[in-house]
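Possible regression after last week's pipeline update?

I re-ran a chain I had predicted before the update to compare outputs. Posting the input and the new output here so someone can diff against the archived version. Not blocking, just want to make sure nothing changed silently.
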Amino acid sequence: MYKAEASILLPAGMVRTMAWIRAYRKNRRNEDALAQQTLAQEAEALWQRIREPEEYSAPSDPFGASTHALGHISDGVRESLAQEAQQMAPAAAATFTFTHAKLMQAIEASTPPRPKSSPWHLTRWLGMDWAIPTARSFALAALLLIAVGFGGHQLGTRHAARVLPVQKLVDDFDAGLRSPTPFQLVADDPKTTESWLSQNLGMKVHLPAPKQSGVKLLGARTHHLEDRPVAQTHYLKGNVRVALYQMRAPRYGLPDLDEVQVHGRLYYTKDCGPYRAIVWRAGDNVMTMVSPLAMRESLLLASDMRDNTPHDVSPSATATPSDVEPPA
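New output (post-update):
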């Protein structure tokens, strides 16, 4: 009713102008909604390219060029930040040590001195000077027992520490699967990855040839385990993520692991719930492959990786030359 009255009272030109304005606003709203939908699709494609590479499919990405460009920029930024953090780490540690020392000195200076007292004063006052040498002997004997016991405990602790903590590697792999930034370096070339890991860890790193091993290299991370540098690389076997850890630990023991020979080479295995850990020695290095694959598939994949890793040590002299099939 009101619109009819307005159209009667207003000139025809003004009515047409108002109708045009309403249509224009409607078109703008539609264009804004379409632009927001396009931005959301581009963001989703970029997210898969960076965070979920196994889910990303370049042929089906309608924004392939822009996704690749933004992903390349993101990889470069993350690599630069990681290198900067590593370069700043020694300076940060030195600053913390200096500040901590100053703080402890300030605390010690602010603590009032305690009055000195000697337990021998009371002994002399009671006329029992003869007891002083005996008491000293007992004190020395007690200190000797404590030192021997503490030293033995420390030796036992150090000896126990020289065991490969397989479960920690498995936990690290599980955390990497859930991490939004699973890689410090995104690369599919083993030579580039070897060079990057060797420079950042200060150790020589050798990686298997991905194509010959039947896997796709996704990226790498630097890792530390019990103050030892660890090279960590991630691969894709079909649609399954697999990780390979390399650390220099010639004296690490491998107890509580099952032994099996595959193609004449010795491997150590452990079933860790949803994951399998396959361990083998390569000279002074200990290699550990962690994957959710079945034990038989994990062993065969580890064997392929070992066979296609340059500069790997030859099989042990105690290994039999015949091929022994891994357990099902």
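Follow-up from reviewer: compared with the archived run. The first strand starts at residue 185 and ends at 186. Marking as no regression found.
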